[in-house]
């Protein structure tokens, strides 16, 4: 018999009413099964199961780490523990230990597993993947508690034992917190984690998919032998996995393309290895030919020298006949020469044997080199087909990413104009490729998009006013007009169509934001049909520097003198400073400088036109 604080308990019997096992229902949908007489044999059996498995939703999965212990109540050191990890699902709802402890040992009166017809079972259960399984000592280091407790990431429940039954032994089960994990715990945990990660269908972000495609293209742009020598195969394993996951969710890739992409990882390495082997065989032929040439040369030199010595020997023999007084000296020389001759003979004989061996090896090398040339051509052809295949599905993958993640909407601000004008931009206002872009779904309402902008830039929605950019004939862009309230109520896709009418393939926006006296965002000023938006750039001829200083609304029929004081304030000049104004780019962009600097002879480019002409010539 068994009772528990914090859980429900009942017993199972067979069709004849014979007792089978205890069932203990814990919180969080867990259940402990204990077979005191064994499940399928003569051992005590204990299992961890999912409660109410018939009600689990389709695709339900849950990772669990658990440890079970049958405590020796007289000597904790001889307690029996077992630890396991498992990913439970609708088809695999139970896992445990059929042969946890032999019944003979369980009922052994010399042990303390069964005391006064009662046993103590300790259970540790957690679904926290960041913590390792507790060890034998950690499980047994906790004392039984008499009231409920809880812990983050695992259950901790106290079970009390009633008066023992005469028919069945009773059990206590305690879920406990883990102690400091041991190395064995951490190894067990990460082995299970690796299995789960490998069996999961990870969805990678779009940027990782693009980077993976770029890595694969870069590898295929190498020659097979350069790729083999680069040692870049290991990073491509993750790239293949990322592209495979994109392919599996992509409706534009055919099944044949997905299969080819999956099989390409091993083929890529094999082709690189084959190319390296072919080059190695060719290099071996070159080395053998070089050795043969050297040995042949040495042998020819030896033959010449041998003939020379032979001639000298004959001359000495002739002198011996006519010059008896020089016999002794001549004999010494003759003996020396004969010794040299013998040495030459021995070394030449060795070189001749080496040459004969090289001739045999050379024939084999020539055959391998010929095969290597054919293999090299085959590898290059296969490599080209793989490269062509990737090129052919590149656009499909990009379209799949576009369908899955949506398009990019570019938002430029005054900060972007300050950052770029005078550095990267001289004739326009901004390079849209270098401004903040937002990846959003096409069907998203524009008002929802404004909330995303508010989170990113910290500008409340009511203080935002967006302008559409218009493309000029000189390929520069300018804010054309603000969006109407009706347009802001549309979707991003509808606004993109409006932007297309202004020669913009993508939705490009300028965010107008005004600051109040306390440098806090305020509502933009009301714009009338007579108002136009001008942008101002300040030129410093001494520094040869052009920079953005601000923007303002002016009347269509207004005169420069009416806004002179405002321009000087924007440039940081005195209110009555004389300045020179230059209209650029259809009059919506104004360049200015001090009038006194225009006639300066100390500067290479004293005015705006001469400086812009210099920049134009330099860029060409």
Automatic annotation (TrEMBL):
<keyword id="KW-0833">Ubl conjugation pathway</keyword>
<dbReference type="InterPro" id="IPR002083">
    <property type="entry name" value="MATH/TRAF_dom"/>
</dbReference>
<protein>
    <recommendedName>
        <fullName>MATH domain-containing protein</fullName>
    </recommendedName>
</protein>
<keyword id="KW-0175">Coiled coil</keyword>
<feature type="coiled-coil region">
    <location>
        <begin position="261"/>
        <end position="382"/>
    </location>
</feature>
<dbReference type="InterPro" id="IPR050804">
    <property type="entry name" value="MCC"/>
</dbReference>
<dbReference type="Pfam" id="PF22486">
    <property type="entry name" value="MATH_2"/>
</dbReference>
<feature type="domain" description="MATH">
    <location>
        <begin position="1"/>
        <end position="125"/>
    </location>
</feature>
<dbReference type="Pfam" id="PF12436">
    <property type="entry name" value="USP7_ICP0_bdg"/>
</dbReference>
<dbReference type="InterPro" id="IPR024729">
    <property type="entry name" value="USP7_ICP0-binding_dom"/>
</dbReference>
<dbReference type="InterPro" id="IPR008974">
    <property type="entry name" value="TRAF-like"/>
</dbReference>
